[in-house]
Amino acid sequence: MSLTVIAMVNKTGVRKAQPPMQLGRITRSKKNCTTRINDEINLVETSVQAIEEDVEGQLNERDQHIADASHQNGCQNEGDDHILNELNHEGHNQNGTAMNELKFQTDVTSPPVKKACVAMMKKAVRQQRYKLKKKYFDACPLHLVPKTSPVTSMSNDQWDKLVDYWKSEEKMVISEKNKTNRSKVQFHQTTGSRSYEMHIVNLANKYQNEPPNALDLFKELHYSKTKGFTPIVQSIIAQVEDKIHAPLDDGEESKDVTDAVFEVLGQKNKKNGFLANVGMKTFLRADNAESQRELQAELVAEQQTSNDLRELVKTQQQQMDEMMKKFQESETARARQDEELKNKQAETDALIKGLMSMIPASLPTR
């Protein structure tokens, strides 16, 4: 079974863009290129190392079809299968542009494949809508926003719905809130439009002997060729290196690089997901991690308290057993004394009775 990646090529000859060299080699070979999807980071892996970037470029640059807000919501409601069906069909768009297909051998029924393809298409649609908003909506006052669609791939009705969605009060509030949140970002990536996953793939030649650790990736993804490291990034690198090379006590193991990066980033930003984004650690909010550490400490304290109570109960039980033993011994001694006293009393009564029997029964009266 093959997964189809759609590229837009104009039949009229106005646009004569050639496919990238890697894709050309694949199509000339008349074979399906085997593809694998990494479930942990949604990364497409093939025998040709650069194929991932080429496929993403095909989606971002050639696929000019933009869905309006209602269509996108419809796709979300219908589920991922709807988007996969859109990917695997062949036809023509409104302008008569042929949909040439480049096929890759993969299992389209696999959940990781579905997840990666849906994420890729949603990202392409979202990116194109962002570019339209930035160019035709944000750049001019509201009364100067085009009344008709500025692109041929979208109808006027779709454009009106999209503009109404952008200028709605709810959307404006969300937009301002997102701007405020973006202003709080401390660690800006320096990979441009390229994703972390794609950048890591391109680092394979640089780290052939040994894969990069978390600190290496942090440096690679936050280094600018023109500005270098920002002061806050330099501070993070210094703190991580101090943790790694800190003097160790006897029997203590050195700090793992991934754990050191996680701890330092967690101190700066409670919601930092850098390690999760590069596929090195499951995303865990720092506040949740702190809560878990507190719960773990409380659990250890409770276990210690429980052990102390158990020892106390054991000691008290031993004391009670000793007291019970002494009580039983005293009771046995008392019972023996009572028995002895009873026997002595019986003997005394018998002696008195014998003496009384020796006295005459009656004396003469005068």
Give the helix/strand layout.
Blueprint: E1 2-9, H1 21-28, E2 33-38, E3 43-46, H2 51-62, H3 69-78, H4 80-87, E4 98-105, H5 111-136, H6 156-166, H7 169-183, H8 196-202, H9 214-221, H10 231-244, H11 257-268, H12 274-277, H13 286-358
Parallel strand pairs: 2-4
Antiparallel strand pairs: 1-4, 2-3
Helix pairs in contact: 4-5, 10-11
Mind explaining what this structure looks like?
Residues 326-346 are annotated as: Disordered. The protein has 366 residues and is α+β, with helices and mostly antiparallel strands. The chain has three domains: 2-132, no CATH class; 196-284, no CATH class; 285-355. Helix content is 57%, strand content 7%. It contains 13 helices and four strands. It is elongated.
Main β-sheet, spatial strand arrangement = 1-4-2-3
Largest sheet: 4 strands, mixed
User: Ranges with pLDDT <50 over ≥5 residues?
Assistant: 1-30, 40-51, 62-70, 72-77, 90-102
Find the structural class using helix and strand composition. alpha+beta
Secondary-structure element sequence?
EHEEHHHEHHHHHHHHH
Could you tell me the strand content as a percent range?
5-15%
Rg to the nearest angstrom?
A: 42 Å
- The number of E-state strands comes to 4
Number of domains: 3
Taken from the alpha-carbon principal axes, the silhouette is elongated
Region (Disordered): 326-346
Pfam families: Transposase_24 (PF03004)
InterPro entries: Probable_transposase_24
